[in-house]
Amino acid sequence: MSQPSTWPIPPGSIRFVLPRRVVSELSQHPLSKDLYPLAMGFYKQASGHGMSRTRHDDFLFIYCVKGQGVLRIGESEHRIQAGDLVVLPKEQIHSYQAKDNNPWSIYWVHCDGTLAPEFIRHLDNPIQSPVIKLGLHSRLAADFESLLDLRKTSQLFQSYLHVCSLLRQILTHISLLQTQARHHFDQSFNMETIQTLMLTRVHETLDIDTLAAAANLSKYHFIKRYKHLTGSTPINDFIRMKIERACHLLDITDQRISEVAWALGYEDAYYFSRAFSKVMGISPSQYRGIRLGKATYKE
């Protein structure tokens, strides 16, 4: 593990280091070898806290929930404040410290695993910028607290496996929060209005011109902005909404496939079936077969 801090732990702060034997087992266990913690903690109003590493052989996440700090990487300096997440990949030489006049309170976790680099790549621009502006989220803080609860049952190996699962959950939750933050801060593009329009028109046809007009953008800029925020195209999302509604109708009614297609604005039942199969991977009749006990979720 990277060199630990020698900062004296005051009352109200926590540092928990996993035993080497446990780390070795987690690095080989099929349920944990992809991602597992090495050490974790919470430092409250960490006056005097700081660290400088010329060797960094794991992955470090720091979530600031109060106060301020400074991160230095090479000649770059980053101001850290409440709501910021610091992501430091393996081999990233760095130093950081709490602000003297407003010391930070931080959750932190050192981790490793065969898929740890993939989890970092899944986040938005962690390589280009080590600081992610997440904002304060009580659920995320609660997730970090759940990690620290490990110390209460650290005699059980199953507890360590559970913490590995929680760590995966935290990192995927952060990715989701990033997407939600993009929607929230892009004031020039009201995603809620666009998707509400899609939902209200799910029984009809809807073209790009109408959606772009609702966003007050050209078709080109509307599609580009929408895909940047969601990773999908507006028409693909509209089709997905239609198919989700089709699934609901197939579940709760005995309408024929052609009637379900008509109810969702498809005049051609064959075209509807093709669209359904493309989204769901099975035909509408096969989907209905699940309800009737003629098919399984996988086959």
TrEMBL record:
Q: Which UniProt keywords apply?
A: Activator, DNA-binding, Transcription, Transcription regulation
Q: Which Pfam families match?
A: AraC_binding, HTH_18
Whether Transcription regulation counts among this entry's keywords is: yes
Which top-rank group of organisms is this from?
Bacteria
Q: Which GO terms describe its molecular function?
A: DNA-binding transcription factor activity; sequence-specific DNA binding
Q: Mind telling me which Gene3D superfamilies this protein's record contains?
A: Homeodomain-like, Regulatory protein AraC
Q: Which residues are in the HTH araC/xylS-type domain? A: 192-290
* PANTHER family listed in its UniProt record: ARAC-FAMILY TRANSCRIPTIONAL REGULATOR (PTHR43280), MMSAB OPERON REGULATORY PROTEIN (PTHR43280:SF30)
Record-given protein name: AraC family transcriptional regulator
Q: What is the lineage of its organism?
A: Bacteria, Pseudomonadati, Pseudomonadota, Gammaproteobacteria, Oceanospirillales
